[in-house]
Design a protein that fits this description.
Layout lengths: L1 H4 L3 E3 L4 E5 L5 E5 L8 H5 L8 E3 L8 H22 L14 H8 L1 H4 L1
Antiparallel strand pairs: 1-4, 2-3
Length: 112
């Protein structure tokens, strides 16, 4: 569930880097500063906004992601328990079926 609420696609033009020169002045650049689309690509409407990359940023695996993961887990389990207790969603098995198998089939629909 955590992966469903974590952004994984980003605009490449927003990738940035910075450095500090000998004088102590900070310089920052984004990839968008260096992307110059010309020619046939520009005629087809391709711009710096067209380039994306995928992945999970490290700040989503730190405290922010941990907090989001906890909230998503708690909400997800509460919804699952609510659906599991609903008798109209349970699959009823015949008496001959062993109890362990019957319990597995009872929660099949809420699990899906």
């Amino acid at each position: 569930l955590w992966m469903m609420v974590t952004p994984t696609s980003f605009a490449a033009k927003d990738l940035s880097a910075s450095f500090i020169d000998k004088a102590g002045k900070s310089h920052g650049y984004t990839l968008g500063d260096f992307i110059n689309v010309t020619g046939k690509a520009a005629k087809n409407g391709i711009s710096a906004d067209s380039f994306t990359y995928s992945g999970i940023l490290s700040n989503y695996t730190a405290a922010t992601g941990l907090f989001t993961g906890l909230i998503v887990a708690i909400v997800g389990m509460e919804i699952y328990n609510m659906l599991r207790k609903n008798d109209s969603l349970k699959i009823k098995m015949p008496e001959q079926v062993p109890p362990g198998v019957a319990r597995a089939f009872e929660v099949l629909i809420p699990t899906c």
